[in-house]
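Figure-free illustration: sequence to structure, shown twice.
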Amino acid sequence: MDDPLPATAIIILLLLLVSSFFTLAESALLGSRKSRLRTKTEEGDKKIKPALEAADNPDSLLSALRMGIIFIDILAGALGVILSLGILPRFVPADIADRGIPGFAGGTALGYFALPSLISALVITIIAVILRGSLARHLARKDPETILLYSLPLIRIIRVLFTPLLFIGAHISSLVLRILRIDPMTDPGMTEDELRLALQEGEKSGIVESEERTMVEGVFYLGDRPVGTFMTHRSEIQWLDIDTEAEKVRAMALEYQAQRFFPVASGTLDAVVGVVSVQDILLALLENSWEGLKSIMGPPHFVPETMSSLKAFEAFKKGDSNILFIIDEYGGFAGILTVRDLIEEIVGELSATAAEDEPILAQEDGSYLVDGNVNIDDIAEILPIAGLPEDPQEYHTLAGFILELAGEIPRTGAVFDWNGYRFKVVDMDGNRIDKLLIEKVVNEDKPHE
């Protein structure tokens, strides 16, 4: 009779390979990103749809795979003991093999099986760790979606084969849980700390970028803190009295335009009556429609300093206000909060000079507030203004262009049109043009002053 031991060893190896495939499929099913599968499906890749359905409802497939892994491991272990019993007498003296492990049920059947069982478990564990723990899981991390797509037909066959065992196991588990008074539907989910750890692990493996982790943790930081944590304190705020004269309002708007909004109060910041934007101030002054701050200010939006920062985000999204006025526990004015303050907590500090020192500021209505000393070439790159000299000899700045166009030193409020664009002189610093507002003009036939 032929020696059955080589065939037994081959069967064990094949079982471990099948078990490794089950582990590969399980890891692919758990690691597949539904967002990526959904994107491919929306792009028209119909082959991906079954994989997306499996990722959306993985429970039955995972149960079948895990049942298969357990079944094969037990079967491989039993065959391993048989193989060890056949191999051991060839390498171990008969008296030791018969006694088994010294001191462990010596002379009994249990002692006889102890040493082969130990050797079998050790060898199979080493092979399983190499095949499943290293190779299979590593391969699944490379491209889980593709592996899931191609292994899905076999996974479904496995589910059909193990359906009877799964059915029996589910009912037994349910009975045990009822006896122990454990709700099977209770799922604690992932805690915030666990998600933080997952993000850190994702960053180490390269799946998550450092900036992405910082942003997500910034959202957590926002969710745990009230708006009072991020507000600009009242002592740092520039504000306008409701009776302030136009000239002083204009000077404040130009000097503190980086603030973008001014609280309007009646005598003191504890009596805030409105809010006005720098843009509305400048437009009202330029169009000679100034009738006081009351005519252009909007109503203030008050919130308590204990309000959640995430709720403040919701207020900004609804468009109720671009600025929130924070009230302390005594009803006094504590400070202001803008959406920029919250965004900086997520993405990090934004450039401090972006709003204050930027020579060209794009406005919400499509116009531009520009410094007079901006190079004319920079203007030509941003605005497609026909007729701007590419290599002017007489001037190099926007202010020089306006002086050439006007033929004299203009006054504050002077307006000049040039090839579809209107230039308004917003501010003069003595004889120097300091600020201009540039906006596109519709249906202008020729430049004029």
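We now fold a second protein in the same way, so the two outputs can be compared directly.
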Amino acid sequence: MWTFLGIASFIYVYKKCGDLMSYANKEVLLSVLVFFSLGLLLSYRYHFRGPRQRQQQKQKSHLGTLSDVLSALPLVGFFWAKPTPGSQQVEQPKSRKGKKEVNFSDVCLTETAPNTALLPQYDPEIIIVGSGVLGSSLATVLSRDGRQVTVIERDLKEPDRIVGELLQPGGFNALRDLGLEDTVEGIDSQMVNGYIIHDLESKSEVEIPYPTSEDGRVASGRSFHHGQFIMGLRRAAMAEPNAKFIEGTVLQLLEEDDCVVGVQYKDKETGDTKELHAPLTVVADGLFSKFRKNLVSSKVTVSSHFVGCILK
């Protein structure tokens, strides 16, 4: 069929262009015959490549068939260029790749947006400056009460100094009422029931026991290493999910309208100066506090007495 169409088109052109061909020399005629033969060869190769290709060609639309006919003609095919299958195969992967890139970016946007929304930075409800006996105990109790507590301590290592080695019975009872009596266990603490005065000359002893409670129980205290007791209180606070510890030095208290609204501190790990805000700030930075004099009057409230004796 295609050979017949090729011969017919050549005869048609030959008759219509007789004058032109009469003046053409042998080289021009030979060139036309060569291009005509190549056109027939390409047409045969394109349209007779196997049963599978012929089945696909039968499924083409009428517009595709017309395009095939025009492109198969030796002279008309020069002006009517039909895209080859190779060019379609090259463009198709590009379009698929582009589609994958768009889908990937859509997935990334969908996944990162919720994560960003679920990670807001909240200030705590309570800031505690210092994690000694009072600061650590208060952090544990408030955390168990459901409060978000942040404790800022200058040094979280175990203290190594001789101070606070004896917990009086009143202090131990308060510790028990707070549910922190376990903090004196496992630190080699010793039960103390009172005092004994020794007279070296007469070798006599005078016992001064602690008073009994209203229910008849003998009050007792605890003696221990101060640093181990502090670390026990800190472990109890750190075990609470609502408590957060920051190792750093508080530089100043932040105030607005004569009210403390937070602290400014220097982070020990990074060295950066940061601010933290909270509705309530508790200053529990020990005996030599640098903030106490700015918050309370110089008058000291005495709540108890400890009697000491000097024997000569």
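Summary for the second example: The chain has eleven helices and eleven strands.
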